Sequence to fold (106 residues):
Amino acid sequence: WASLFEDLLRGRGCATALCHGGSDAGFRVTDSASTHAALTTGAATGEECAGQGALIVAGDPDGSLFVDKLGAEPRCGDPMPLGGIPLRDEDLEAVRAWIAAGALIE
Fold:
């Protein structure tokens, strides 16, 4: 989790005011522990994705909206990163592997 948080979420600019760091962001990227808790216990709250399921389903990357949103054509809303360069295949696989292994914070 630590490397995913630092390299992908913070390193790719997800915590900026233009994305998930602003005060009006539905999902906020803050510190590692709070962001992990929000991802693993929350559901989507954005206008287009509310009611579309859990952000992270531990053990089930295909059932996790977070993974879906990282793809080119998510089932709701815009793909992430918004207006940015899509994740490299190996980064997406790292996210999928983390979720498949239980989405633990350790």
